[in-house]
Design goal:
Layout: H1 8-18, H2 23-47, H3 49-58, E1 71-77, H4 81-92, E2 99-106, H5 112-122, E3 126-131, H6 140-151, E4 156-161, E5 164-166, H7 171-176, E6 185-187, E7 190-192, H8 198-219, E8 231-234, H9 235-240, H10 256-262, E9 268-270, E10 278-280, H11 286-297, H12 305-331, H13 335-362, H14 370-392
Parallel strand pairs: 1-2, 1-4, 2-3, 6-9, 7-10
Antiparallel strand pairs: 4-8, 5-10, 6-8
Helix pairs in contact: 2-12, 2-13, 4-5, 11-14, 12-13
């Protein structure tokens, strides 16, 4: 019988030494604990990177540029007349002393050319070029971006998409301030606009999670990707790495493959200010979203081998955790096994909510509580399904 004044450690030691586990129960708990420890490490080491960077900025521990280097904003647009009409003025009216905006008309069939011509009359720092309609290239966006980059007057290039809108008028300034000596690439957060609906909630969660992962890994000097909705790098770096030539024949990858190719342990920074975000509209149905994800995932086989291994470890331990959680609750006859498994699940869930929600709040996103459990399980399963689907669908698909 226990006494009420028994020291907690003594109680724990009593249970460990007096409760007997079968070999199966011991293996279940040991494996579950190993998966739990790695998941805890992953969240604290990588997914918490944005929050740590925010605290460093607040304590003035981050070195920013004291000058305002001139910037060339590059946008590739294909049939984006309505989005350009709505969002381009926000970019053209940024509060930044010296910058130009270059829009590449990627063989559009709408009135993009006429709209850009009218904008050029109003905004003298707007320049345009185009990809000819007769161009036969596997990735006309890469070709278009290359044309825009070659036309850029300035060394610092800031890329976004035609359907993206900066969160503030200081977007350019927040991204450009990171270009100190030795910095070649700056990763920003490209978010989606929040709307009602379960699919939108899933898309915005996955976008946040992926951003926390690639920005967190970059903060830990293991940068592996960025998103073209909010990405900056030096023109000189683009030239040194031979631009998009190494992967011009790949359908996507104008953003993540370039960063994966050009990044090293010291030349990448992340910009975490809430004023540096760009937002765009998310897909409105699962089929369109699956199509978009399939296109993005088509670049992943071309990542560096070290990157691919690193990215596979976390989903593996996540699946292992849930598998052995279920096995422990199902086949653990000793109540201590079930109690320990439940405890590990609750601790992990608590850490997830803390790290994800405070980063989400910082970026002005929604919070996740019970839905976090569903998304945590659904996300890797959905990715696996899309990768599997892409193996069997017709190979002559044309990506837009």
């Amino acid at each position: 019988m226990f006494h009420s004044n028994l020291h907690p450690y003594a109680a724990f030691e009593f249970f460990i030494t007096n409760v007997e586990f079968t070999n199966v129960e011991f293996i279940l708990l040991a494996t579950l604990s190993a998966a739990f420890v790695y998941q805890l490490y992953f969240y604290c080491r990588y997914l918490n990177g944005i929050w740590r960077q925010k605290k460093k900025n607040k304590k003035n521990e981050t070195i920013f540029s004291n000058s305002h280097p001139p910037v060339s904003v590059i946008i590739c647009a294909k049939n984006e007349e309505e989005n350009l009409k709505k969002y381009l003025p926000v970019i053209l009216e940024q509060d930044y002393p010296q910058y130009e905006v270059i829009v590449i008309d990627d063989a559009s069939d709408d009135n993009t050319a006429l709209l850009l011509s009218a904008f050029c009359e109003k905004y003298p720092h707007l320049y345009t070029t185009f990809v000819p309609h007769e161009t036969k290239n596997f990735s006309t966006k890469k070709l278009g971006l290359t044309l825009g980059i070659k036309a850029a007057k300035h060394d610092i290039l800031l890329l976004t998409d035609a359907d993206c809108v900066p969160e503030s008028k200081t977007w350019i300034g927040k991204m450009a301030r990171n270009f100190t000596p030795g910095t070649d690439i700056v990763l920003g957060y490209g978010a989606y606009i929040n709307h009602k609906g379960f699919l939108n909630k899933q898309i915005t969660y996955e976008t946040l999670f992926i951003a926390m992962q690639y920005m967190g890994m970059a903060a830990a000097r293991k940068a592996y990707m960025g998103v073209g909705r909010n990405l900056a790098y030096r023109k000189e770096t683009f030239k040194k790495k031979n631009g998009f030539v190494p992967f011009m024949a790949i359908r996507s990858g104008d953003d993540d493959l370039f960063v994966n190719h050009a990044a090293d342990k010291r030349n990448v920074k992340i910009e975490v200010s809430s004023e540096s975000i760009t937002r765009s509209e998310a897909k409105e149905n699962y089929r369109s979203w699956r199509y978009q994800k399939e296109r993005h995932l088509s670049a992943s086989p071309y990542y560096k081998q070290s990157t691919k291994i690193r990215l596979m470890i976390e989903p593996f331990f996540r699946a292992l955790f849930y598998l052995f959680l279920i096995l422990s609750l199902t086949f653990g006859h000793n109540w201590m096994v079930k109690a320990a498994a439940t405890f590990l699940f609750l601790v992990r869930w608590g850490v997830q909510m803390l790290i994800i929600n405070r980063t989400s709040t910082h970026f002005g996103e929604r919070k996740y509580y019970f839905s976090l459990i569903f998304f945590d399980i659904f996300q890797p399963l959905n990715t696996f399904f899309i990768l599997l689907y892409s193996k069997f669908r017709p190979k002559n698909i044309i990506w837009k």
